[in-house]
Amino acid sequence: MESLLTILSLAEVHQQRPESMAYLKQHVKEGTLYGKYSAEGVPLTDIRSTAIYAITAMIGSVTGDQELYESSIEQMNKFQINDTNSELEGGSATPAASRPIHSIM
């Protein structure tokens, strides 16, 4: 997550690295952008979240990359609770019922 915020900060001053942007675009499109990586780029967790994809949407917006922006929003929408019987309908959560629901503000 911290590296995404770094990329966002760099993008705001037009200093984002093309390699970072290509990596983000690929993994956002595939839905495989995770919350933590090793120094070698290996995922250390299987956690994906709306917060991760919200930041990549911001990066897409700041850089004018419509494809990254739209892919990010599409991934965010996959976390939306659409169960009309749930008091959390319309919110976002990890689909696995065994995990607690968290909110990042």
Shape: globular
Total strands: 0
- Number of contiguous helices: 4
Q: Helix- and strand-based class?
A: mainly alpha
**Major sheet description:** none
Strand content: under 5%
Could you name the ranges where pLDDT drops below 50 across 5 or more consecutive residues? none
Order of helices and strands: HHHH
**Rg, please?**
14 Å
User: How many domains?
Assistant: 1
Q: What fraction, in percent, of the residue positions are helical?
A: 40-55%
Overall pLDDT level: 85
What would your notes on this structure say?
The model has no long low-confidence stretch (mean pLDDT 85). The chain has helices at residues 2-12, 18-30, 50-63, 66-77. The chain is 48% helix and 0% strand. The chain is mostly helical. The protein has one domain (2-77). Residues 84-105 are annotated as: Disordered.
List keywords for this structure.
6hp_glycosidase-like_sf; 105 residues
Q: Secondary-structure blueprint of this entry?
A:
Blueprint: H1 2-12, H2 18-30, H3 50-63, H4 66-77
Briefly, what is this?
By secondary structure, the chain is an all-alpha fold. It is globular and about 45 Å long.
